[in-house]
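Continuing the batch. This is chain 6 of the set; chains 1 through 5 are on the previous pages. Same settings as before, nothing changed between runs. Recording input and output for traceability.
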Amino acid sequence: MFIQSTQQEKGAPVMLHETSLKTRYYETDAMGHINNTNYIAYLEVARVDFLYGTGISSKDKPFRFVVASVRCDYLHPIYPWQDIRITSWVSRIGNKSITMRHEILTEDGVTAAKAQVVMVRYDPAARQSLPLDPETVGKLRPYLRQDEAEK
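Output for chain 6:
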């Protein structure tokens, strides 16, 4: 699902991507809340959903990114059988990599986690990084939002 956010300083609206999930009991830990490792899996679902939803990847166009870095700040517990949504956007487009930001929100709108993921375009046959192609950059630009922390 795609939603629009407010306009940036330059006047162009920024697109946000949203993925919805329901947590499951087996994702809990001894404390009774969702284990921290599952947050990373939720981010992966959101990233893949974003890449397929934007047409950057598809069944006919293989997934050509590897994760170089993941940072997740856990702010609020999530519990089993909760509906959550992950809002995603692009915060940086580099020569070979992109940085995505995510927020995991509970069904009542509480921010459970904030995350940053760096992905590098990669050629598995050559085992090396590749420059981002202009088509991919064009599909990423509508989702580019400069966060306050990056200004």
